[in-house]
Protein backbone atom coordinates (compact mmCIF):
# COMPACT_ATOMS: atom_id res chain seq x y z
CA UNK A 1 0.00 0.00 0.00
CA UNK A 2 2.86 2.39 0.84
CA UNK A 3 6.31 2.18 -0.58
CA UNK A 4 9.24 1.84 1.76
CA UNK A 5 10.50 5.39 1.40
CA UNK A 6 10.60 8.42 -0.81
CA UNK A 7 14.35 8.22 -1.22
CA UNK A 8 14.38 6.78 -4.72
CA UNK A 9 12.42 9.74 -5.97
CA UNK A 10 14.54 12.24 -4.10
CA UNK A 11 17.67 10.76 -5.59
CA UNK A 12 16.58 12.12 -8.95
CA UNK A 13 17.63 15.56 -7.74
CA UNK A 14 21.15 15.31 -9.09
CA UNK A 15 22.49 18.43 -7.39
CA UNK A 16 22.06 16.73 -4.02
CA UNK A 17 24.20 13.83 -5.09
CA UNK A 18 26.89 16.17 -6.38
CA UNK A 19 26.81 18.14 -3.13
CA UNK A 20 27.15 14.93 -1.15
CA UNK A 21 30.17 13.88 -3.19
CA UNK A 22 32.06 17.09 -2.47
CA UNK A 23 30.93 17.63 1.10
CA UNK A 24 32.19 14.76 3.24
CA UNK A 25 31.01 14.96 6.82
CA UNK A 26 30.51 18.69 7.40
CA UNK A 27 33.49 20.38 5.80
CA UNK A 28 32.00 23.75 4.91
CA UNK A 29 34.85 25.97 6.17
CA UNK A 30 36.01 28.79 3.95
CA UNK A 31 33.47 30.45 1.70
CA UNK A 32 30.45 29.12 3.58
CA UNK A 33 29.77 26.36 1.06
CA UNK A 34 26.23 24.94 1.00
CA UNK A 35 25.49 22.04 3.29
CA UNK A 36 26.14 18.80 1.38
CA UNK A 37 22.75 17.15 1.72
CA UNK A 38 22.10 13.67 0.41
CA UNK A 39 18.74 12.13 -0.47
CA UNK A 40 18.56 10.49 2.95
CA UNK A 41 19.29 13.49 5.18
CA UNK A 42 15.75 14.87 5.10
CA UNK A 43 13.90 11.58 5.17
CA UNK A 44 10.99 11.55 7.61
CA UNK A 45 8.79 8.55 8.44
CA UNK A 46 5.10 8.52 7.61
CA UNK A 47 3.33 8.46 4.26
CA UNK A 48 5.79 8.88 1.40
CA UNK A 49 5.42 10.83 -1.87
CA UNK A 50 3.70 9.10 -4.75
CA UNK A 51 4.57 11.09 -7.88
CA UNK A 52 3.14 8.52 -10.28
CA UNK A 53 -0.19 8.13 -8.46
CA UNK A 54 0.32 4.41 -8.18
CA UNK A 55 -0.53 4.18 -4.48
CA UNK A 56 -2.48 7.25 -3.39
CA UNK A 57 -5.87 8.17 -4.79
CA UNK A 58 -5.67 11.54 -6.58
CA UNK A 59 -5.89 14.60 -4.36
CA UNK A 60 -9.16 16.41 -5.00
CA UNK A 61 -8.87 20.16 -5.66
CA UNK A 62 -10.73 22.59 -3.45
CA UNK A 63 -12.72 23.80 -6.42
CA UNK A 64 -14.57 20.49 -6.29
CA UNK A 65 -15.33 20.97 -2.59
CA UNK A 66 -16.60 24.48 -3.26
CA UNK A 67 -19.63 23.18 -5.17
CA UNK A 68 -21.31 22.30 -1.87
CA UNK A 69 -19.14 24.00 0.76
CA UNK A 70 -19.09 27.59 -0.51
CA UNK A 71 -21.38 30.29 -1.80
CA UNK A 72 -24.05 30.40 0.89
CA UNK A 73 -22.70 31.89 4.16
CA UNK A 74 -19.20 33.46 4.09
CA UNK A 75 -18.59 33.23 7.84
CA UNK A 76 -19.82 29.64 8.18
CA UNK A 77 -19.11 27.80 4.93
CA UNK A 78 -15.73 26.01 5.02
CA UNK A 79 -14.18 27.04 1.71
CA UNK A 80 -14.41 30.84 1.71
CA UNK A 81 -12.70 31.52 5.06
CA UNK A 82 -10.15 28.77 4.39
CA UNK A 83 -9.16 30.35 1.08
CA UNK A 84 -8.58 33.66 2.88
CA UNK A 85 -6.46 32.10 5.63
CA UNK A 86 -2.71 31.67 5.89
CA UNK A 87 -3.37 27.93 5.65
CA UNK A 88 -5.07 28.40 2.30
CA UNK A 89 -2.30 30.71 1.06
CA UNK A 90 0.67 28.90 2.63
CA UNK A 91 2.08 27.94 -0.77
CA UNK A 92 1.69 31.47 -2.20
CA UNK A 93 3.11 33.34 0.80
CA UNK A 94 5.93 35.58 -0.55
CA UNK A 95 7.76 35.45 2.79
CA UNK A 96 7.79 31.66 2.62
CA UNK A 97 9.20 31.72 -0.90
CA UNK A 98 11.88 34.25 0.07
CA UNK A 99 12.89 32.22 3.11
CA UNK A 100 12.92 29.06 1.04
CA UNK A 101 15.28 30.63 -1.49
CA UNK A 102 17.78 31.41 1.25
CA UNK A 103 17.39 27.96 2.81
CA UNK A 104 18.11 26.45 -0.63
CA UNK A 105 21.28 28.54 -0.83
CA UNK A 106 22.36 27.22 2.55
CA UNK A 107 21.34 23.61 1.90
CA UNK A 108 20.36 22.71 -1.67
CA UNK A 109 17.37 20.37 -1.57
CA UNK A 110 16.00 21.59 1.75
CA UNK A 111 12.85 22.77 -0.06
CA UNK A 112 11.58 19.20 0.03
CA UNK A 113 11.47 19.43 3.82
CA UNK A 114 9.83 22.86 4.00
CA UNK A 115 7.03 22.22 1.52
CA UNK A 116 5.82 19.25 3.59
CA UNK A 117 3.91 21.82 5.65
CA UNK A 118 3.41 24.72 3.25
CA UNK A 119 2.37 22.71 0.21
CA UNK A 120 1.51 19.13 1.23
CA UNK A 121 -0.36 18.52 -2.03
CA UNK A 122 2.90 19.22 -3.86
CA UNK A 123 5.00 17.08 -1.55
CA UNK A 124 2.72 14.05 -1.76
CA UNK A 125 2.77 14.33 -5.54
CA UNK A 126 6.58 14.55 -5.61
CA UNK A 127 6.70 18.19 -6.69
CA UNK A 128 9.68 19.60 -4.78
CA UNK A 129 10.33 22.72 -6.89
CA UNK A 130 8.14 25.65 -5.70
CA UNK A 131 8.86 27.67 -8.84
CA UNK A 132 7.00 25.06 -10.88
CA UNK A 133 4.01 24.49 -8.60
CA UNK A 134 0.75 23.88 -10.45
CA UNK A 135 -2.68 25.08 -9.32
CA UNK A 136 -3.24 22.08 -7.04
CA UNK A 137 0.15 22.55 -5.39
CA UNK A 138 -0.63 26.23 -4.74
CA UNK A 139 -3.71 25.38 -2.70
CA UNK A 140 -1.52 25.20 0.39
CA UNK A 141 -2.93 23.23 3.30
CA UNK A 142 -6.15 22.30 1.56
CA UNK A 143 -9.45 20.46 2.11
CA UNK A 144 -8.63 17.02 0.75
CA UNK A 145 -5.27 16.93 2.51
CA UNK A 146 -6.56 17.74 5.99
CA UNK A 147 -9.64 15.59 5.67
CA UNK A 148 -7.59 12.54 4.71
CA UNK A 149 -5.21 12.75 7.69
CA UNK A 150 -5.12 9.65 9.89
CA UNK A 151 -4.47 9.63 13.64
CA UNK A 152 -1.17 7.72 13.98
CA UNK A 153 -2.19 6.59 17.48
CA UNK A 154 -4.85 3.90 17.41
CA UNK A 155 -7.46 4.26 20.13
CA UNK A 156 -10.95 3.04 21.03
CA UNK A 157 -12.55 5.64 18.74
CA UNK A 158 -10.18 5.20 15.81
CA UNK A 159 -11.93 4.32 12.54
CA UNK A 160 -11.60 0.65 11.73
CA UNK A 161 -10.01 1.53 8.38
CA UNK A 162 -6.99 2.90 10.24
CA UNK A 163 -5.86 -0.53 11.43
CA UNK A 164 -4.82 -1.55 7.92
CA UNK A 165 -3.18 1.79 7.09
CA UNK A 166 -1.11 1.91 10.24
CA UNK A 167 -0.23 -1.78 10.14
CA UNK A 168 1.09 -1.37 6.61
CA UNK A 169 3.26 1.60 7.60
CA UNK A 170 4.47 -0.27 10.67
CA UNK A 171 5.53 -3.29 8.61
CA UNK A 172 7.60 -1.03 6.39
CA UNK A 173 9.19 0.73 9.37
CA UNK A 174 7.55 4.02 8.40
CA UNK A 175 5.35 4.74 11.41
CA UNK A 176 6.34 8.18 12.74
CA UNK A 177 7.27 8.13 16.43
CA UNK A 178 5.63 11.54 16.90
CA UNK A 179 3.26 13.83 15.06
CA UNK A 180 5.63 16.75 14.44
CA UNK A 181 7.76 17.77 11.42
CA UNK A 182 4.88 17.10 9.00
CA UNK A 183 5.29 13.34 9.35
CA UNK A 184 1.69 12.80 8.46
CA UNK A 185 -0.19 9.58 7.89
CA UNK A 186 -2.35 10.14 4.83
CA UNK A 187 -5.29 7.93 3.89
CA UNK A 188 -4.36 6.36 0.52
CA UNK A 189 -8.05 6.26 -0.40
CA UNK A 190 -10.08 9.38 -0.98
CA UNK A 191 -12.16 8.92 2.16
CA UNK A 192 -13.35 12.16 3.77
CA UNK A 193 -12.73 12.32 7.52
CA UNK A 194 -14.32 14.79 9.91
CA UNK A 195 -15.39 15.42 13.51
CA UNK A 196 -19.13 14.66 13.26
CA UNK A 197 -20.65 11.21 13.70
CA UNK A 198 -24.23 12.12 12.76
CA UNK A 199 -23.93 12.71 9.03
CA UNK A 200 -26.54 11.11 6.78
CA UNK A 201 -25.51 8.21 4.61
CA UNK A 202 -23.68 8.96 1.38
CA UNK A 203 -23.37 12.77 1.74
CA UNK A 204 -20.47 12.82 -0.77
CA UNK A 205 -22.24 10.83 -3.46
CA UNK A 206 -20.42 7.56 -3.09
CA UNK A 207 -17.18 8.82 -1.52
CA UNK A 208 -16.68 7.24 1.89
CA UNK A 209 -17.18 9.54 4.89
CA UNK A 210 -15.49 8.56 8.16
CA UNK A 211 -16.05 9.91 11.65
CA UNK A 212 -12.63 10.98 12.98
CA UNK A 213 -12.17 12.27 16.55
CA UNK A 214 -8.62 13.17 15.49
CA UNK A 215 -10.02 16.15 13.60
CA UNK A 216 -11.18 17.87 16.78
CA UNK A 217 -7.95 17.24 18.71
CA UNK A 218 -4.87 19.42 18.96
CA UNK A 219 -2.74 16.45 17.97
CA UNK A 220 -3.79 17.07 14.37
CA UNK A 221 -2.25 20.54 14.60
CA UNK A 222 0.93 19.04 16.07
CA UNK A 223 1.62 17.82 12.53
CA UNK A 224 3.02 21.18 11.44
CA UNK A 225 3.13 23.31 14.58
CA UNK A 226 6.15 21.72 16.23
CA UNK A 227 9.07 21.89 13.81
CA UNK A 228 12.70 20.91 14.36
CA UNK A 229 15.82 20.82 12.24
CA UNK A 230 16.51 17.13 11.49
CA UNK A 231 20.05 17.97 10.36
CA UNK A 232 21.01 18.69 13.99
CA UNK A 233 21.16 16.38 17.00
CA UNK A 234 21.18 17.22 20.68
CA UNK A 235 24.48 16.48 22.40
CA UNK A 236 25.00 15.17 25.96
CA UNK A 237 25.84 18.71 27.13
CA UNK A 238 22.54 20.07 25.76
CA UNK A 239 24.03 21.78 22.71
CA UNK A 240 23.16 20.92 19.10
CA UNK A 241 25.56 19.75 16.43
CA UNK A 242 25.16 18.54 12.84
CA UNK A 243 24.60 14.89 12.07
CA UNK A 244 26.85 12.98 9.74
CA UNK A 245 25.47 13.48 6.26
CA UNK A 246 24.12 10.64 4.20
CA UNK A 247 21.60 9.24 6.69
CA UNK A 248 18.30 10.25 8.32
CA UNK A 249 18.22 11.67 11.80
CA UNK A 250 19.35 8.86 14.14
CA UNK A 251 16.27 8.88 16.41
CA UNK A 252 13.52 10.89 14.65
CA UNK A 253 12.59 12.23 18.11
CA UNK A 254 11.82 15.94 18.03
CA UNK A 255 13.53 16.55 21.37
CA UNK A 256 16.75 15.22 19.85
CA UNK A 257 16.60 17.85 17.07
CA UNK A 258 17.27 21.58 17.10
CA UNK A 259 13.90 23.24 17.93
CA UNK A 260 12.69 25.83 15.45
CA UNK A 261 9.27 26.36 16.97
CA UNK A 262 7.19 24.60 19.61
CA UNK A 263 3.65 25.96 19.46
CA UNK A 264 2.01 22.58 20.08
CA UNK A 265 4.42 21.78 22.91
CA UNK A 266 3.66 25.14 24.53
CA UNK A 267 -0.04 24.25 24.43
CA UNK A 268 0.51 20.69 25.64
CA UNK A 269 2.31 21.78 28.79
CA UNK A 270 -0.21 24.45 29.76
CA UNK A 271 -3.54 24.27 31.55
CA UNK A 272 -5.17 23.95 28.14
CA UNK A 273 -3.32 20.76 27.24
CA UNK A 274 -3.31 18.97 30.58
CA UNK A 275 -6.70 19.92 32.02
CA UNK A 276 -10.26 20.33 30.91
CA UNK A 277 -9.42 23.74 29.54
CA UNK A 278 -9.96 27.33 30.65
CA UNK A 279 -13.17 29.33 30.74
CA UNK A 280 -12.44 32.57 28.91
CA UNK A 281 -16.03 33.79 29.28
CA UNK A 282 -16.42 34.46 25.58
CA UNK A 283 -12.99 35.92 24.88
CA UNK A 284 -12.44 33.27 22.23
CA UNK A 285 -14.53 30.56 20.65
CA UNK A 286 -17.44 31.96 18.67
CA UNK A 287 -20.65 30.52 20.14
CA UNK A 288 -18.93 27.73 22.02
CA UNK A 289 -21.59 26.31 24.35
CA UNK A 290 -19.48 26.39 27.52
CA UNK A 291 -16.87 29.06 26.80
CA UNK A 292 -14.20 26.60 27.94
CA UNK A 293 -11.25 26.66 25.58
CA UNK A 294 -9.03 23.60 25.39
CA UNK A 295 -7.98 22.55 21.89
CA UNK A 296 -6.37 24.57 19.11
CA UNK A 297 -9.62 24.26 17.18
CA UNK A 298 -11.62 25.88 20.00
CA UNK A 299 -9.86 29.21 19.46
CA UNK A 300 -8.64 29.08 15.88
CA UNK A 301 -11.76 27.47 14.33
CA UNK A 302 -14.51 29.05 16.48
CA UNK A 303 -17.95 27.44 16.44
CA UNK A 304 -20.61 28.99 14.23
CA UNK A 305 -24.37 28.53 13.97
CA UNK A 306 -25.23 27.32 10.50
CA UNK A 307 -24.63 24.58 7.97
CA UNK A 308 -21.37 23.02 6.92
CA UNK A 309 -22.86 22.36 3.49
CA UNK A 310 -24.79 24.51 1.04
CA UNK A 311 -27.49 21.86 1.02
CA UNK A 312 -28.47 22.99 4.51
CA UNK A 313 -32.12 22.23 3.87
CA UNK A 314 -31.17 18.60 3.34
CA UNK A 315 -28.50 18.12 5.96
CA UNK A 316 -29.69 20.74 8.45
CA UNK A 317 -27.91 23.30 10.59
CA UNK A 318 -25.91 22.81 13.76
CA UNK A 319 -24.65 25.23 16.45
CA UNK A 320 -21.04 24.13 16.25
CA UNK A 321 -19.86 24.36 12.65
CA UNK A 322 -16.10 24.97 12.93
CA UNK A 323 -15.22 28.15 11.10
CA UNK A 324 -12.40 27.24 8.72
CA UNK A 325 -10.79 30.65 9.22
CA UNK A 326 -7.72 29.32 11.07
CA UNK A 327 -7.49 32.68 12.81
CA UNK A 328 -3.92 33.70 13.54
CA UNK A 329 -1.78 36.79 13.85
CA UNK A 330 -0.62 37.65 10.34
CA UNK A 331 -1.67 41.18 9.49
CA UNK A 332 -0.25 41.82 6.01
CA UNK A 333 0.72 38.73 3.98
CA UNK A 334 -2.84 37.99 2.87
CA UNK A 335 -2.95 41.48 1.39
CA UNK A 336 0.31 40.78 -0.42
CA UNK A 337 -1.04 37.52 -1.84
CA UNK A 338 -4.17 39.31 -3.01
CA UNK A 339 -2.04 42.01 -4.61
CA UNK A 340 0.08 39.45 -6.44
CA UNK A 341 -2.52 36.84 -7.44
CA UNK A 342 -5.88 38.59 -7.22
CA UNK A 343 -8.87 36.32 -7.73
CA UNK A 344 -6.66 33.45 -8.91
CA UNK A 345 -5.73 33.09 -5.21
CA UNK A 346 -9.31 31.95 -4.58
CA UNK A 347 -9.89 34.97 -2.34
CA UNK A 348 -12.01 38.02 -2.90
CA UNK A 349 -10.98 41.40 -1.58
CA UNK A 350 -13.83 41.18 0.93
CA UNK A 351 -12.80 37.74 2.22
CA UNK A 352 -9.17 38.87 2.48
CA UNK A 353 -10.08 41.96 4.51
CA UNK A 354 -12.43 39.92 6.71
CA UNK A 355 -9.62 37.46 7.45
CA UNK A 356 -7.19 40.22 8.43
CA UNK A 357 -9.88 41.76 10.66
CA UNK A 358 -10.34 38.40 12.41
CA UNK A 359 -6.60 38.16 12.98
CA UNK A 360 -6.41 41.66 14.42
CA UNK A 361 -9.38 40.89 16.67
CA UNK A 362 -7.62 37.78 17.99
CA UNK A 363 -4.45 39.77 18.64
CA UNK A 364 -6.43 42.31 20.64
CA UNK A 365 -7.97 39.51 22.70
CA UNK A 366 -4.69 37.66 23.19
CA UNK A 367 -3.43 39.82 26.05
CA UNK A 368 -4.55 42.17 28.79
CA UNK A 369 -2.40 44.95 30.21
CA UNK A 370 -2.35 46.46 33.69
CA UNK A 371 -0.43 49.55 34.81
CA UNK A 372 0.24 50.46 38.45
CA UNK A 373 2.25 53.23 40.04
CA UNK A 374 4.58 52.77 43.00
CA UNK A 375 6.48 55.83 44.17
CA UNK A 376 8.28 57.18 41.11
CA UNK A 377 7.93 54.11 38.90
CA UNK A 378 5.17 52.41 36.96
CA UNK A 379 4.87 48.67 36.48
CA UNK A 380 3.42 47.40 33.22
CA UNK A 381 2.04 43.88 33.40
CA UNK A 382 1.27 42.12 30.11
CA UNK A 383 -0.82 38.99 30.65
CA UNK A 384 -1.00 36.22 28.04
CA UNK A 385 -4.42 34.61 27.51
CA UNK A 386 -3.47 32.43 24.56
CA UNK A 387 -2.86 28.68 24.75
CA UNK A 388 0.82 29.06 23.86
CA UNK A 389 3.58 31.60 24.21
CA UNK A 390 2.92 35.16 23.21
CA UNK A 391 4.01 35.64 20.55
CA UNK A 392 4.47 32.09 19.28
CA UNK A 393 5.68 30.47 16.06
CA UNK A 394 8.87 30.78 14.05
CA UNK A 395 11.46 33.35 15.17
CA UNK A 396 11.14 35.17 11.85
CA UNK A 397 10.61 38.77 12.82
CA UNK A 398 7.48 38.29 14.95
CA UNK A 399 7.67 40.43 18.06
CA UNK A 400 5.71 42.37 20.67
CA UNK A 401 6.89 45.25 22.81
CA UNK A 402 5.88 47.86 25.38
CA UNK A 403 5.69 51.51 24.39
CA UNK A 404 5.43 54.12 27.15
CA UNK A 405 4.99 57.86 26.64
CA UNK A 406 5.21 60.21 29.63
CA UNK A 407 3.46 63.60 29.35
CA UNK A 408 3.42 66.66 31.60
CA UNK A 409 0.39 68.79 32.55
CA UNK A 410 0.54 70.57 29.19
CA UNK A 411 0.49 67.21 27.36
CA UNK A 412 4.07 67.75 26.21
CA UNK A 413 5.93 64.49 25.59
CA UNK A 414 8.76 64.20 28.12
CA UNK A 415 10.13 60.69 27.60
CA UNK A 416 9.25 57.78 25.31
CA UNK A 417 10.30 54.14 25.70
CA UNK A 418 10.01 51.64 22.84
CA UNK A 419 9.61 54.33 20.18
CA UNK A 420 8.58 53.05 16.76
CA UNK A 421 8.83 55.07 13.55
CA UNK A 422 5.86 54.10 11.38
CA UNK A 423 7.53 55.65 8.32
CA UNK A 424 10.87 53.85 8.54
CA UNK A 425 9.63 50.78 10.50
CA UNK A 426 12.51 51.23 12.96
CA UNK A 427 12.02 50.23 16.59
CA UNK A 428 14.14 51.48 19.47
CA UNK A 429 14.08 48.39 21.63
CA UNK A 430 17.01 49.31 23.83
CA UNK A 431 14.94 51.09 26.49
CA UNK A 432 11.94 48.75 26.70
CA UNK A 433 10.91 45.10 26.73
CA UNK A 434 10.73 43.36 23.34
CA UNK A 435 9.19 39.87 23.40
CA UNK A 436 10.79 37.70 20.74
CA UNK A 437 12.82 34.59 19.97
CA UNK A 438 16.26 34.77 18.39
CA UNK A 439 18.28 31.85 17.04
CA UNK A 440 22.03 31.81 16.73
CA UNK A 441 25.15 30.04 15.50
CA UNK A 442 27.59 29.02 18.21
CA UNK A 443 31.29 29.94 18.04
CA UNK A 444 32.24 26.32 17.39
CA UNK A 445 29.70 25.84 14.61
CA UNK A 446 30.58 29.19 13.06
CA UNK A 447 34.17 28.04 12.58
CA UNK A 448 33.00 24.88 10.84
CA UNK A 449 30.48 26.63 8.62
CA UNK A 450 32.55 29.68 7.79
CA UNK A 451 29.76 32.03 8.86
CA UNK A 452 29.59 34.67 11.61
CA UNK A 453 28.75 33.51 15.12
CA UNK A 454 25.78 35.00 16.94
CA UNK A 455 22.22 35.85 15.96
CA UNK A 456 21.06 34.49 12.62
CA UNK A 457 17.93 34.21 10.50
CA UNK A 458 19.49 31.27 8.64
CA UNK A 459 17.25 28.59 10.19
CA UNK A 460 19.15 25.75 8.56
CA UNK A 461 22.45 26.81 10.18
CA UNK A 462 21.22 27.80 13.64
CA UNK A 463 22.17 25.51 16.51
CA UNK A 464 21.25 27.52 19.61
CA UNK A 465 18.56 29.81 20.99
CA UNK A 466 20.03 33.11 22.11
CA UNK A 467 16.86 34.73 23.41
CA UNK A 468 13.30 33.66 24.10
CA UNK A 469 11.56 35.91 26.60
CA UNK A 470 8.11 35.35 25.12
CA UNK A 471 5.36 35.11 27.73
CA UNK A 472 4.31 31.52 28.57
CA UNK A 473 0.70 30.31 28.55
CA UNK A 474 -1.47 29.85 31.63
CA UNK A 475 -0.26 26.81 33.54
CA UNK A 476 3.35 27.08 32.38
CA UNK A 477 5.70 24.60 34.08
CA UNK A 478 9.44 25.10 33.95
CA UNK A 479 10.58 21.47 33.79
CA UNK A 480 8.34 20.18 30.92
CA UNK A 481 9.14 23.26 28.86
CA UNK A 482 12.87 22.74 29.39
CA UNK A 483 12.63 19.03 28.62
CA UNK A 484 10.82 19.70 25.34
CA UNK A 485 12.91 22.46 23.82
CA UNK A 486 10.61 25.33 24.77
CA UNK A 487 12.34 26.83 27.82
CA UNK A 488 12.66 30.61 28.11
CA UNK A 489 16.13 31.97 27.40
CA UNK A 490 17.22 35.23 28.95
CA UNK A 491 14.07 35.45 31.06
CA UNK A 492 12.70 33.67 34.11
CA UNK A 493 9.06 32.71 34.55
CA UNK A 494 7.79 30.95 37.67
CA UNK A 495 5.53 27.91 37.45
CA UNK A 496 2.04 29.04 36.51
CA UNK A 497 3.17 32.53 35.48
CA UNK A 498 1.55 33.71 32.26
CA UNK A 499 2.40 37.39 32.57
CA UNK A 500 5.46 39.61 32.57
CA UNK A 501 6.22 42.84 34.42
CA UNK A 502 8.31 45.74 33.19
CA UNK A 503 9.17 48.71 35.40
CA UNK A 504 9.76 52.22 34.05
CA UNK A 505 11.03 55.27 35.95
CA UNK A 506 8.68 58.24 35.97
CA UNK A 507 10.48 61.38 34.75
CA UNK A 508 10.21 64.58 36.75
CA UNK A 509 7.07 66.56 35.94
CA UNK A 510 5.19 63.64 34.35
CA UNK A 511 1.43 63.77 34.87
CA UNK A 512 0.23 60.93 32.63
CA UNK A 513 1.67 57.79 31.08
CA UNK A 514 0.21 56.39 27.86
CA UNK A 515 1.16 52.73 27.67
CA UNK A 516 0.69 50.61 24.54
CA UNK A 517 1.50 46.98 23.83
CA UNK A 518 2.30 46.46 20.15
CA UNK A 519 2.51 43.32 18.03
CA UNK A 520 4.27 43.16 14.68
CA UNK A 521 4.14 40.26 12.23
CA UNK A 522 7.37 40.98 10.33
CA UNK A 523 10.17 43.24 11.49
CA UNK A 524 12.26 45.45 9.24
CA UNK A 525 15.36 43.51 10.22
CA UNK A 526 13.93 40.19 9.06
CA UNK A 527 12.44 41.41 5.78
CA UNK A 528 15.71 43.18 4.91
CA UNK A 529 17.53 39.92 5.62
CA UNK A 530 15.25 38.15 3.14
CA UNK A 531 15.97 40.84 0.56
CA UNK A 532 19.73 41.07 1.05
CA UNK A 533 20.64 37.43 1.71
CA UNK A 534 18.83 36.18 -1.40
CA UNK A 535 21.67 36.02 -3.92
CA UNK A 536 20.36 33.19 -6.08
CA UNK A 537 18.89 35.56 -8.64
CA UNK A 538 15.30 34.34 -8.34
CA UNK A 539 14.13 37.70 -6.97
CA UNK A 540 12.03 36.18 -4.20
CA UNK A 541 13.71 38.20 -1.45
CA UNK A 542 13.21 41.50 -3.24
CA UNK A 543 9.61 40.56 -4.04
CA UNK A 544 8.83 39.83 -0.38
CA UNK A 545 10.39 43.12 0.64
CA UNK A 546 8.47 45.07 -2.00
CA UNK A 547 5.17 43.53 -0.89
CA UNK A 548 6.03 44.28 2.74
CA UNK A 549 6.51 47.94 1.80
CA UNK A 550 3.35 47.99 -0.31
CA UNK A 551 1.33 46.56 2.58
CA UNK A 552 2.40 49.22 5.06
CA UNK A 553 5.65 47.66 6.28
CA UNK A 554 3.79 45.28 8.56
CA UNK A 555 2.47 48.16 10.60
CA UNK A 556 2.33 47.17 14.29
CA UNK A 557 -1.04 46.51 15.89
CA UNK A 558 -1.86 48.18 19.22
CA UNK A 559 -3.16 45.17 21.10
CA UNK A 560 -3.56 46.99 24.45
CA UNK A 561 -3.53 50.66 25.41
CA UNK A 562 -4.01 52.41 28.76
CA UNK A 563 -3.62 55.96 30.04
CA UNK A 564 -2.39 56.13 33.62
CA UNK A 565 -2.85 59.33 35.65
CA UNK A 566 0.27 59.77 37.75
CA UNK A 567 0.34 61.26 41.23
CA UNK A 568 3.14 63.11 43.06
CA UNK A 569 2.61 60.93 46.11
CA UNK A 570 3.46 57.85 44.08
CA UNK A 571 0.08 56.22 44.30
CA UNK A 572 0.38 55.19 47.97
CA UNK A 573 -3.12 55.05 49.41
CA UNK A 574 -4.85 55.32 46.02
CA UNK A 575 -6.93 52.20 46.56
CA UNK A 576 -9.26 52.72 43.61
CA UNK A 577 -6.42 53.67 41.26
CA UNK A 578 -8.08 56.88 40.04
CA UNK A 579 -4.99 59.02 40.57
CA UNK A 580 -6.16 60.65 43.82
CA UNK A 581 -6.13 59.81 47.53
CA UNK A 582 -9.45 61.07 48.76
CA UNK A 583 -12.79 60.23 50.36
CA UNK A 584 -13.42 57.39 47.92
CA UNK A 585 -10.25 55.62 49.09
CA UNK A 586 -11.11 56.31 52.73
CA UNK A 587 -14.53 54.72 52.19
CA UNK A 588 -12.92 51.63 50.65
CA UNK A 589 -10.55 51.32 53.61
CA UNK A 590 -13.36 51.63 56.16
CA UNK A 591 -15.44 49.03 54.30
CA UNK A 592 -12.82 46.36 55.09
CA UNK A 593 -11.76 47.72 58.50
CA UNK A 594 -10.51 45.04 60.86
CA UNK A 595 -10.20 42.33 58.22
CA UNK A 596 -7.01 40.24 57.81
CA UNK A 597 -6.32 41.37 54.23
CA UNK A 598 -3.22 41.83 52.17
CA UNK A 599 -2.58 44.47 49.50
CA UNK A 600 -3.89 46.83 48.39
CA UNK A 601 -5.93 47.70 51.52
CA UNK A 602 -3.18 46.61 53.95
CA UNK A 603 -0.90 49.57 53.36
CA UNK A 604 1.41 49.08 56.35
CA UNK A 605 2.01 45.37 55.72
CA UNK A 606 0.80 44.04 59.08
CA UNK A 607 -1.84 41.78 57.39
CA UNK A 608 -4.66 43.65 59.15
CA UNK A 609 -6.62 46.67 57.95
CA UNK A 610 -6.51 49.14 60.82
CA UNK A 611 -5.18 52.41 62.26
CA UNK A 612 -1.78 52.15 60.57
CA UNK A 613 -3.42 51.98 57.16
CA UNK A 614 -5.68 54.90 58.02
CA UNK A 615 -2.65 56.97 58.97
CA UNK A 616 -1.04 56.26 55.60
CA UNK A 617 -4.21 57.30 53.78
CA UNK A 618 -4.37 60.58 55.69
CA UNK A 619 -0.66 61.34 55.32
CA UNK A 620 -0.93 60.91 51.53
CA UNK A 621 -4.23 62.76 51.22
CA UNK A 622 -4.32 64.18 47.67
CA UNK A 623 -7.91 64.89 46.63
CA UNK A 624 -9.02 65.66 43.11
CA UNK A 625 -9.40 69.40 42.48
CA UNK A 626 -12.91 70.78 42.50
CA UNK A 627 -14.34 71.51 39.06
The gist of it:
The chain has 627 residues and is an alpha+beta fold.
Count of discrete alpha- or pi-helical segments spanning 4 or more residues: 22
- What ranges have pLDDT less than 50 throughout 5 or more consecutive residues? 1-31
Q: Evaluate the radius of gyration.
A: 27 Å
Say how many strands there are: 23
Largest sheet composition: 5 strands, antiparallel
Return the average pLDDT rounded to an integer.
91
Q: Could you tell me the strand content as a percent range?
A: 15-25%
Characterization of this structure:
The protein has 627 residues and is of the alpha+beta class. Among the domains are: 364-565, no CATH class; 573-627, Type 1 dockerin domain (Orthogonal Bundle), CATH 1.10.1330.10. The longest helix is centred in the middle third of the chain and has 18 residues, at 349-366. The protein is built from 22 helices and 23 strands. Mean pLDDT is 91; it is low at 1-31. Strand 15 (420-421) and strand 16 (426-427) form a beta hairpin. Helix content is 28%, strand content 17%. Strands 13, 14, 17, 22 and 23 form a 5-stranded antiparallel sheet that branches. Strands 11-12-21 form a 3-stranded antiparallel sheet. It is globular, with a radius of gyration of 27 Å. Helix 5 packs across helix 19 (524-533) and helix 19 runs antiparallel to helix 20.
Amino acid sequence: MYRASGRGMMARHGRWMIAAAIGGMFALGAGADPLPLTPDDLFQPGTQPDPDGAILDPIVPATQCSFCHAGYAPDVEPVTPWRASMMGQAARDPVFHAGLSIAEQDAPGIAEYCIRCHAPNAWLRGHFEPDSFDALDQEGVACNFCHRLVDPVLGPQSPEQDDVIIEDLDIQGLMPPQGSNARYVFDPTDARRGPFDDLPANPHFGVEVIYSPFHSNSELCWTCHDVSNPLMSKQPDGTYAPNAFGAPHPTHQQNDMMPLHRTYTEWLHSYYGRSEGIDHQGRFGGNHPTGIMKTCQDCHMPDQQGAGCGLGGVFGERPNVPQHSFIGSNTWVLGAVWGQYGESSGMTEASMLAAIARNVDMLEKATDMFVTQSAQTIKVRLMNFTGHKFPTGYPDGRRAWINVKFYDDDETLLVEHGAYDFETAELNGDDTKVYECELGVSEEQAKVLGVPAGHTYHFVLANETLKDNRIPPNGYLQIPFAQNGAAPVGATYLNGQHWDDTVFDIPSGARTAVVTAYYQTTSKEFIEFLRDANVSGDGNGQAAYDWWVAQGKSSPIAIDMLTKVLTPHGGVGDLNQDGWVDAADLALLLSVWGLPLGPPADLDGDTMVGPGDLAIILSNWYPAPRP
